[in-house]
Amino acid sequence: MSYTELTHEQRDIRDLARRFADEEIAPQAAAWDREHRFPREVFKALGELGLMGVCVPAEHGGAGADFLSYMLVLEELSRADAGVGVTVAVHTSAGTLPILANGTEEQIQRLVPPLAQGHELAAFALTESGSGSDAGAMRTRATAGGAGGPPLLTGTKQWITNGSYAHTFTVFAKDPDRPTAYLVRRGAPGFSVTREEQKMGLNSSSTADLALDSTPGERLGAPGAGMRIALSTLDGGRIGIAAQALGIAQAALELATGYAKERRAFGRPIGGFGAIQQKLADMQTEIEAARALVWRAARLKQAGHPHTVEGAQAKLFASKVARHWTGEAIQILGGYGYTKEFPAERYYRDAKVTEIYEGTSEIQRLVIARALLGEAARES
Q: In the chain, how many H helices and how many E strands?
């Protein structure tokens, strides 16, 4: 997409994120991946720049920019390190924005500013071992606290991004049969992180399992509104994951293009061969098409228009582009692409999960098909 399509403010925010990503993240990304290290200091620095709450209103501690600006930030961070990108994406889209959209004024004033300023991190705890795509099958329960105390949550949650480091968790539980959203603070009685997942990629991010044993929580939104809150959160979160996938694919394109200019074979740069040219041309074209879908979905959300289908389309296509073209970037680099001397293999490992989390590609196709076919798509 053309740089001139952006406003001056959007360009400035994108440039700020790009400089930080190039100077502070990219040089360390390989080491973080190798060491499986969560770079907590990076998020404090991003908070100081206003990039941990890009689209959070200024009166609540954020930068007060629009949703597209936030997508631009996620793309740039993910271009340098997708683990950093997903940490910010989940912290903002799934952790902070639901509080803004559904919290009481007191909850917003108390919880959002430290999140938007990067002093604290947020997480979204919906998935369980037996309820991934089928979120309604969750088994975590909320019961009334004694003597008018807060509700008590009991159950487990799995694959929670930021789980080992977050301070505020949006946890979904049934009370007793209707899914309801609750806010849980780290350190609450009965709350524990039981496992840090060892992953194929995104090794600089935290993915943890949680346990709650009569853990006090405070309700977020109305009783029984949990599925509505979860689904509306995922509608926006999917655009963020699409931006993450876009950043990974862009990084692969830049690496492959640079290599094709420098690597010589048979007396000339390999970029002079038609097979390489065609790969790079198709790669750039599909990345630009993915970017157009991401920007469209972001603008619809910003304007307050329905964006469920557009977000699903953006995530479905961008994740496919990232997974396919990171593999082709390895092919262009040849043997070097298969080694850790170059980041192509890291891009490939990081890209795959964008087809899985925040709704699998199969679920995105289901969302799109149901909107297209209506009741016909629901016949069994």
A: 12, 10
The catalytic residue positions are 358
* pTM, 2 dp: 0.94
Geometric angle at alpha carbon 53, from 187 and 344, rounded to 5°: 95
Cis status, amide bond into 176, omega within 30 of 0: yes
* CATH topology agreement for domains 3-116 and 122-224: no
Task: Indicate the residue type of 253.
Answer: L
227-378 in CATH: which number? 1.20.140.10
Q: Which residues pair with 210 in a beta bridge?
A: 157, 193
Residue 173: strand pairing partners? 180
CATH number for 122-224 (one of 2.130.10.10, 3.90.215.10, 3.40.47.10, 2.40.110.10): it is: 2.40.110.10
Please give the full DSSP string across 131-175, using - where no structure is assigned.
BSS-GGG---EEEPPGGG---EEEEEEEEEETTTT-SEEEEEEES
Amino acid at 173: A
Contact assessment for residue 316 and residue 364, using Cβ atoms and an 8 Å cutoff: yes
Place of tokens 């329960």: 141
Six token digits for residue 354: 């964008």
Cβ atoms of 355 and 319 closer than 8 Å = yes
CA of 271: how far to CAs of 264, 276, 281, 338, in Å?
8, 6, 11, 19
- The domain limits of the chain are 3-116, 122-224, 227-378
Sign of CA dihedral 318, 49, 344, 354: negative
Tens of pLDDT, residue by residue, the chain (380 residues) = 566 889 999 999 999 999 999 999 999 999 999 999 999 999 999 999 999 999 999 999 999 999 999 999 999 999 999 999 999 999 999 999 999 999 999 999 999 999 999 999 999 999 998 887 777 789 999 998 777 789 999 999 999 999 999 999 999 999 888 999 999 999 999 999 999 999 999 999 999 999 999 999 999 999 999 999 999 999 999 999 999 999 999 999 999 999 999 999 999 999 999 999 999 999 999 999 999 999 999 999 999 999 999 999 999 999 999 999 999 999 999 999 999 999 999 999 999 999 999 899 999 999 999 999 998 877 65
Q: Fold for 3-116, please state it.
A: Butyryl-Coa Dehydrogenase, subunit A; domain 1 (1.10.540)
What are the φ/ψ torsions at residue 53 (nearest 5 degrees)? -145, 50
